[in-house]
Amino acid sequence: MKIKADSSPGQARPRAIRSLAFTLTEIMVSMAIFIMVISGVVTSHLFGVRLYEITKAKLSASEDARRGLTLLYDEVRSGKIIRIGKGDDLLFTRITNGLPQIGNAIQIYPTTNQNFYIRYFWDNDDRRLKRKPSDSVSVAVIANFVSNQMVFSAEDFAGNVLTTYDNNRVIGLMLQFYQVQYPVAPIGPGGVFDYYQLRTKITRRALE
Fold this sequence. Notes:
It is elongated and about 95 Å long. It has one domain (about 40-200). It is about 30% helix and about 25% strand. The chain has a 6-stranded antiparallel beta sheet, covered by helices on one side. It has a 4-stranded antiparallel beta sheet with strand order 3-8-9-10, covered by helices on one side. The protein is an alpha+beta fold and about 210 residues long.
């Protein structure tokens, strides 16, 4: 008589559990893949934060300048007389006829009355573009951190700087900015900073 071995479920269960478990090699491979994925996500996030900080200063400065220059656009378009020159909040000297019409200041006369005008000028002391009406002692800041001195120019339709007082001239505006995000100031000898510029052209609505 043959006696069969008892194959109860209790003996087969540990073997089945062992067949479903991960080996040490599989765990190490899984951990390596997981670490690589996490490293990629963190690197991408840090790159995005860095890119945002770089563009934030440029966008904020450009947006501030655009808001301030909206008034300049309207005043140039509606002005009766426009003169390019050099000046500050106290004095203005018009560029002589025959010389390149480019300077740090522009004087706009809304009417033919030359006793009333609006002056925009680049201030060398703090490197800001400012606005001052003739009937006011207050000076408004239009744009900050402007590095170029020759902000305004009178040009023809092709962008060439004129040397005469042509009536149909185009007013060119160029603002070159320097700025860093933290802190908002030039750093070191010669200045280490982000550099970018805003350039546009304006014409009067009606030419007499």
